[in-house]
UniProtKB/TrEMBL annotation, chains A, B:
InterPro entries registered for this protein in UniProt: CinA, CinA-like_C, CinA_C, Competence-induced_CinA, MoaB/Mog-like_dom_sf, MoaB/Mog_dom
Source organism phylogeny: Bacteria, Pseudomonadati, Pseudomonadota, Gammaproteobacteria, Alteromonadales
Transmembrane segments: none
Protein name per Swiss-Prot or TrEMBL: CinA-like protein
Domain MoaB/Mog, first and last residues per copy: 4-171
Protein's organism: Shewanella colwelliana
Length: 424, 424
């Protein structure tokens, strides 16, 4: 079974946007043990689209086509498919009715241009899109099924998960059982992780993959076949032993999610005081529905005046130690916690760069504090100063991890391999 | 002249890393008026590489190949090219000497595996790499020149700029000047924008593109050729007249950036009080270096207690009107502004969903307030409730836009086409 992908869109081809849909899809398929053979990116030229549909239809069995289903004139996937197959576009009446109903429900008249989204190649099988105006569809041409999906990421993802993957599975005879385990790491680069893991003798059918998404690297352990799946638990245990504190979560793609779940479960409340992270910690939690149950407030006290006025930090502390210091961040954490009586107070203060560093406190220096009912924990770390964004992301991640450890009754301050700690 | 790109590498194909080289290259070429026709991404399988080199060599004139020039066993671009052309790999002696010299200069003995990097297809023309161990090369096959470049981004970028683009230009006779103008819009969907813009009769050589990145849609006007470029200013003026308030920025990709620049220029200070946006407004500004010059603090007062304790909101106001109300958000904005004397105070309070809505205030209801030295402006809007993320992004965008308008001495409250406003 040969599976390929065709990504359409001038803006993807011309590099104005990076094609995250393609990476996401390849990854989602891989999680199901489905391998993609190749991927073609083409612009919005009718002739190019027709040529690539025809050409690939002789080589692939299933082709995931993304984009070009919108209502505007540069959306021409349907038209190109109809021409490639030599058949007319015809109205898909169920979808036109759905569109009209959707606009009526939202108190609007449907723009004429949206009618185009109900015109499909004559032999097309419609694929439902429950969250957008572009329906998907599939058409058989030569040896291939071409499966068309919308470009809007959340519509695309839903259609791939709910309709494309089941369709692929329905087309294969042999179905190999696949299992994936994911370990989220913080503090090592990919090559260091790979060096460590070469010590493990992987059994037949088990492979390791790495996925880097700032500031984490996720280790993925794939097992194909019953025997390999049976060995997975032991492999995971071995990896955890080898990597220790570097592993910060299992089967979760961010620490924000872990902390969110633990706070909800434990009915614990949190207040956050952020300086260099500037709202990242708070907004990472607010992204999850239900966070209002535990999050009292997140105070981005960016200026010294604000640290004093809002968090009751002692001006003398700021004078003696500076804003980026263990002393200040401890008062910030405690100030945030006691303001309206939260169980935990989490605080950051650091130099995200590119300017503002000094010999003593270079760019990348960040103090992080956690106030709890048992006392205040804090550390000052030196993160790689490669970018402002990276420093802020790493600071948020370590802050979340300190809270996670406290919620788990584990030691709050631990080593993360590559981040140096300042003496207290 | 047909130009294509072939990206190699299992990790790019399988979505473990996003192919930023491809986007970068397409963009760099477009800036020179060179258009890329399509892009193919293939894994590290010898047969797949050979097939794609041969197949595309009948269609394209120049093919930029990226990756697969390293010293390890999964780097097989040279070998695949030699096999595709049916010629042997031979040592490129100048490059072997360069490699040996490079290792000697760095006090190291060259590993045997690096010898592989000096083995090129017999007919290859070597392309210098001044910053790495992988030389580039080009080979003519059928109608195409295949131009091979290293995968390491900074080596790749340098080779494209210094060698690939001049090579492409040497192969073309005509050189077309290209210009792009960008308009950021808020409040209309892509189809509504397109409907509006069909009223404009675009001159030859001018095309319109849309780029959607939540919550904005960017309109891009491309002009090719001197005459088209000359007409661009008038077209932009026409688009601005047609769309009015819907256009919120020019040549900028977010309102956060516009507000950041205007606050810095005007030496004005800002305090933010966020509820439903949960730190998005603040962290969008902190993302820019230099924001500490104007941002006093961003207070995510998520709970009612916090609104009272931190922002001095009157508990009676919360009782009478609720947290999501004009009255509350005005007190929040004024509270944030006066706490340490900022020029502006910006506040949001809303129901981001998926739960928490009522008949009177359904999910998507958001109150936004802006306190200034001249008074407090506020409005309560109903955003589409498609997702929590969307409601939060739209709320942030409208909040930024109110501030932008105040900074420009424009009316603060305007209509954005598709968001309904609640009576005050």
């Amino acid at each position: 079974m040969k599976i390929e992908m065709i990504c359409t869109g001038e803006e993807v081809l011309s590099g104005q946007i990076i094609d995250t849909n393609a990476a996401w899809a390849a990854n989602a398929l891989m999680n199901q043990g489905i391998e993609m053979q190749q991927r073609i990116t083409v612009g919005d030229r009718l002739d190019d689209l027709i040529a690539v549909f025809q050409e690939r239809s002789h080589h692939a069995d299933i082709i995931l086509v993304n984009g070009g289903l919108g209502p505007t004139s540069d959306d021409m996937s349907s038209e190109a498919m109809a021409l490639a197959k030599g058949e007319p576009l015809v109205e898909c009446t169920p979808w036109r009715l759905r569109l009209e109903e959707w606009f009526t429900r939202n108190g609007r008249v449907m723009p004429v241009s949206n009618l185009k989204q109900a015109m499909l190649p004559e032999s097309a099988v419609m694929v439902d899109n429950p969250v957008g105006t572009a329906c998907g569809f599939r058409v058989k041409l030569n040896q291939a099924w071409l499966f068309f999906t919308p470009g809007v990421p959340f519509e695309f993802k839903r259609m791939v998960n709910e309709q494309f993957i089941p369709f692929v599975q329905s087309q294969t005879n042999e179905h190999v059982e696949v299992s994936v385990r994911k370990l989220l790491t913080l503090g090592y680069g990919e090559s260091s992780l790979a060096d460590k893991l070469t010590q493990i003798d992987l059994p037949e059918g088990v492979t390791v993959g790495y996925r880097s998404f700032m500031p984490y690297i996720e280790i993925k352990l794939f097992a194909r076949g019953e025997e390999a799946i049976g060995s997975l638990a032991n492999i995971v245990a071995l990896v955890k032993t080898l990597l220790g504190n570097v592993i910060v979560a299992e089967e979760r793609s961010s620490l924000a999610q872990v902390v969110h779940e633990r706070l909800l479960e434990g009915a614990q409340s949190l207040s956050v005081a952020e300086s260099c992270t500037g709202g990242l910690i708070t907004s990472g939690l607010v992204a999850f529905p239900g966070s209002s149950a535990y999050l009292h407030h997140g105070l981005v006290t960016y200026s010294n005046e604000s640290k004093v006025a809002v968090l009751d930090v002692n001006p003398q502390t700021l004078d003696d130690h500076g804003a980026v210091s263990i002393a200040t961040v401890e008062e910030m954490a405690e100030g945030a916690r006691t303001l309206i009586g939260s169980d935990y107070g989490l605080a950051t203060s650091g130099i995200a760069g590119p300017d503002g560093g000094s010999d003593q406190k270079p760019v990348g220096t960040v103090a992080i504090g956690l106030a709890t009912s048992k006392g205040v924990y804090s550390q000052m770390l030196k993160f790689p100063a490669r970018s402002r964004e990276l420093v802020r992301q790493l600071s948020s991640a370590v802050a979340y991890d300190m809270l996670r450890r406290a919620l788990n009754d584990e030691p709050v301050i631990v080593d993360y391999a590559s981040y140096a700690r300042f003496a207290k």
